[in-house]
Specification:
Blueprint (H helix, E strand, L loop, with lengths): L2 E7 L9 E8 L18 E7 L3 E5 H5 L2 H7 L7 E3 L4 E6 L5 H4 L11 E11 L8 E13 L5 E14 L5 H31 L4 E8 L7 E4 L4 E7 L2
Antiparallel strand pairs: 1-2, 1-3, 2-11, 4-12, 5-7, 6-7, 7-8, 8-9, 10-12
Length: about 240
Amino acid sequence: MPNMSLYTFTRNAAQDAGPFFQSSINHGSGSWAFVTMFNLPESHSALVWERPDLEAVLDLSATANSPLALAQIDTLLTSPASRSGPIRSSYIVWGNVPSVVRDPDPGLHQDSDLLLTLNIDFHVSTPWYCSDANGTLKFYIFPFLDDVGNLMAHVDGASFHFDGGGPFCSGDIQSAIQAGLSGAVASLQNLLDTALPIFAAGRTFNMLYILPGHGDFGFTQDNADNNASLAAVANG
């Protein structure tokens, strides 16, 4: 049975992610559906999406934080850097992707195209004469369907930022992370190339889209800065 989902966002546009409320209702195929929400905090944008029967949802945050995935992801950071906290998933339009990722091929996507992000918060322990550093490593992933409907994804690049490391260690931290970025992108690409066929389970798809949150139904409150899902409609 199809599902009509309504999302309201506190930011100016749904593609800006951020906190949101969701309400949804199942309805008969071809029939009307009414989705309402009342007494919400200030909202600036809304998204209504019809979710078909054959929708398959990949909850990115849950998948990335599974023990098997974490074991692979944690190899992207080597001592003295380590992951701090869970992996967060979100999305961003290509036009807002940092220039360090866009500049090598700015026309790779339309500015309005949505990319997924995987965000890894990290901590760097330093010698006693420097302050420890904390930051975030962010990967930009473009999901797509190939010509025959296979689910694919390409890691377009990565960026990072951190605070701390002063007064003498910030340059070394910057250089070490920068040097490891290409290998980290390749490792994540390999992980996606392995995981997506498992999710597809032999299916091909005719539509692909990104959902805020965990891709669930009913009434929920969440933050798309931390949780996003990839949804694909399978061929019947």
